[in-house]
Design goal:
The structure is a homodimer. The first copy, chain A, is built from 16 helices and 11 strands. Chain A has helices at about 15-20, 35-40, 50-55, 80-85, 95-100, 130-145, 195-200, 205-210, 210-240, 275, 305-315, 330-335, 355-360, 410-425, 435-440, 445-450, and strands spanning about 25-30, 60-65, 100-105, 110, 150-155, 250-255, 280-285, 345-350, 370-375, 380-385, 385-390. In chain A, helix 6 (about 130-145) runs parallel beside helix 9. At the A-B interface, helix 8, helix 13, helix 14 and helix 15 of A face helix 8, helix 13, helix 14 and helix 15 of B.
């Protein structure tokens, strides 16, 4: 899936699962997830229904839809922030771009945040009017409307740090080059790299972030944008503390992807190195049952798909086994000992058909797919039409040596392919058949209906 | 998918694709395919819409829905045949079972067709009132209603040959043991078989068909049921010839699966031996462009999923590349030289969670999956939780020697796993994004919208 690719009409989101448990689920921020309005019309679904109303907001009530990515508004309702900026005195039809995502140099020349060289300038918006602060305001407004009795789920989805990489003062200047973490890359990676990896290295964003001058200028600003999130979440949590919401709210902090920022000679987020796929995940479970693990770090293999069943179990909803592919994290949150059958691998998949690498590789869209599986020892990557990649995560934790075509590892690769095929077992193609029906199916059911097969 | 597993609400069938091209698509016979009415209601889809009306008939107009499998009626409208039998003097609430699928012995005792030993008795229904003849009558009635101008697609889906294996006279007695083809099996197959294969061999239907007395009694009747199809299709084609429909109608004869009938010590249809997966496919393309291949046999790798785009292309509909996974067969029908990029493998998948083998293996439903890929040399089968199977289709065309755990074939298995993973490329997960959009996506589109990523 890419941004704005419509999900299937019968796909359910966190909001859909929590609704029967009485939850009001709202979005504040970006989603890039929607259903197809054309398809909704074609199926004769009432366009005034709750379902159709959430068509552009991933199933959540669009309390404040702010994609924060498209220079022009793209989705119905995605214009609150521009109107807000106008009301605060930032004029024009697109103050998101002109003020929040542009800076000004000493001479007053406007510098677009879309160009990395301009990251050093403070955004032309006051911190109190910037995207991160605005979304926090809107989140607090939403919380303020809750009566304390009815359950709710707020999907607070900040856009920053993100292109355009520019920060409001003082965040544009909080860090300097001495704060930057060491880059993870080696010259050896440039020597006969995997063709897909090579194509990503050739992209403009990768070439830019491979330059030391770019990293030194942009990464401190990127860190400032993270620090702003930190400060704004502090403000949100303080509000929740004062209103006694903190002790009855599960808080999950995570991200949809990492960012290479020059690691492995790459920019952006597309491939499977840890910089891209190992995302932050911090969960505060307010229940005293979770006190045993409070403040601790869990080293089990978890995935983003685990969040949905976590929320559903926490909210008292029904974990629909014929659909849900993740595993609730509550057992890990509430005991230091993981369930004996906890998964031993993590899985990821990409479709890079809309990325520049497709043009370099001259691929049809449907060939732009790759699958990754990682266990505690190996990370194996399958590419359509290209050789696989393999990394020894124990001996080479920074993934600098690709063993994907090393004859000595043929058996490891064969085993990882087997694991990858077997990992498909958790895919749920039969979503229309309740799990209990599936579990009870069998010859005994047939016979009860009078169907007797093969009896002499 | 199993019988009656609802397909996803936005899944399109042949009928859905042909509708915009002006086709009336109707079902006469079985489908075992439906949508979930509960889900249709949950989405607020008008239950009176054409879409909802075809909920139990695979998207086709249910001209005559006859599942012919369930002793009681299971789907709305699936009762035409019982009413017909009543009108012809066959009394009772379930004449399908009492007459069409039971026989009578010399002493007039009623013998159920559900028991194989009773296959020798003629069904208690006259041939002219039997299922195959009735469905042919209904097909002719449908054709008779066509005006000759509007295009139509008739899905004539005979249930027989099928359990209960019993035939009306004279078809119960047309063949004898000398007509039976040699059984394909070897004693070696019983020696340490693959666990999933072993579980299927233990099923009652497999044990029955492994017996020579059963095969000798049942197979001639099975052949009689096929002969009845042949005769009834002859009647249908004669009608079409006299009404000048034959020269303007594409006719496709195929089946949804084969039948082991004792091959490999198995009954039924579940696994991947040729007896099960290599189905008949005969296509009569009336267009003179197809004269070059008329009467010839094509040896290319084709699959059942190819029929949908074949019909759509023939009918002048739109082949929706973001959804359709098969390839139209028209190029093979209209030239003896296959397109250079025609596929070099065939793929198949099973979910045996509702079969008796699951109980024997003590598996969770979602572990009951297996994938098969076959090229001109090898057939490779992936099983969740079990070792793979491998057959050398050149040296061992009858698939009697499983090389799945033979160390000498480790490289072949690794290569076939790679092919299997790559074969996933044709799966279309992004059905909401038109192919043209997908093909045009890329950095150039982003830039046209003002999104500039990673420029210094």
């Amino acid at each position: 899936m890419a941004n704005q690719d419509p999900t299937r009409i019968d796909e359910l989101t966190i909001a859909d699962y929590l609704q029967p448990a009485g939850y009001r689920s709202a979005l504040v921020g970006k989603t890039h997830s929607r259903k197809s309005l054309a398809q909704i019309r074609a199926l004769g679904i009432d366009p005034e229904s709750d379902f159709a109303r959430c068509v552009a907001s991933g199933g959540f009530e669009p309390y404040e839809l702010h994609e924060g990515l498209y220079p022009g508004a793209r989705a119905p309702g995605d214009n609150g922030y521009n109107a807000y900026l106008n009301s605060q005195g930032y004029a024009g039809s697109n103050p998101w771009h002109e003020y929040a995502n542009c800076g000004a140099d000493k001479n007053g020349n406007i510098r677009s945040g879309w160009q990395l060289r301009n990251s050093i300038y403070p955004a032309r918006v006051a911190e109190e009017h910037s995207e991160t602060t605005y979304l926090t305001n809107r989140a607090i407004e939403f919380l303020d409307q809750q009566d304390g009795d009815s359950p709710w789920c707020l999907h607070l989805s900040y856009i920053k740090p993100h292109w355009p990489l520019i920060a409001p003062a003082p965040y544009h200047d909080l860090y300097d080059v001495s704060d930057i973490q060491p880059v993870q890359r080696s010259e050896q990676e440039l020597d006969n790299p995997h063709p897909v990896y090579a194509a990503f290295m050739e992209q403009e964003y990768s070439e830019s972030f491979s330059r030391e001058d770019v990293r030194k200028r942009v990464i401190p600003v990127y860190m400032g944008l993270i620090r702003q999130i930190d400060d704004q979440l502090g403000r949100l949590f303080e509000y929740m503390k004062q209103t006694e919401m903190l002790e009855q709210t599960m808080i999950v902090f995570t991200s949809d992807h990492g960012d290479y920022l020059g690691d492995h000679w790459l920019g952006e987020k597309d491939l499977f190195h840890e910089a891209s796929v190992k995302i932050p995940l911090i969960i505060a479970d307010p229940d005293t049952i979770a006190d045993d693990t409070r403040g601790s770090v869990c080293n089990e293999m978890v995935e983003a798909v685990d969040l949905l069943p976590t929320f559903v179990e926490y909210g008292g909803g029904v974990i629909n086994r014929e659909r849900i592919e993740g595993q609730s994290l509550l057992p890990l949150l509430r005991s230091k000992i993981a369930p004996a059958d906890w998964r031993q691998f993590a899985f990821s998949e990409i479709d890079y058909s809309e990325r520049g690498a497709r043009s370099s590789l001259k691929l049809e869209p449907y060939d732009c797919r790759a699958l990754m599986i990682r266990d505690r020892h190996w990370k194996y990557i399958h590419h359509n039409l290209f050789r696989p990649q393999l990394f020894d995560m124990q001996k080479d934790p920074h993934e600098l040596i690709d063993l994907g075509d090393n004859p000595a590892y043929a058996k490891v690769r064969a085993d990882m392919r087997q694991l990858m095929l077997t990992a498909r077992r958790r895919l749920k193609p039969r979503i229309g058949t309740p799990y209990e029906n599936l579990a009870n199916m069998g010859p005994q059911q047939d016979e009860a209906q009078g169907i007797i097969i093969g009896r002499w």
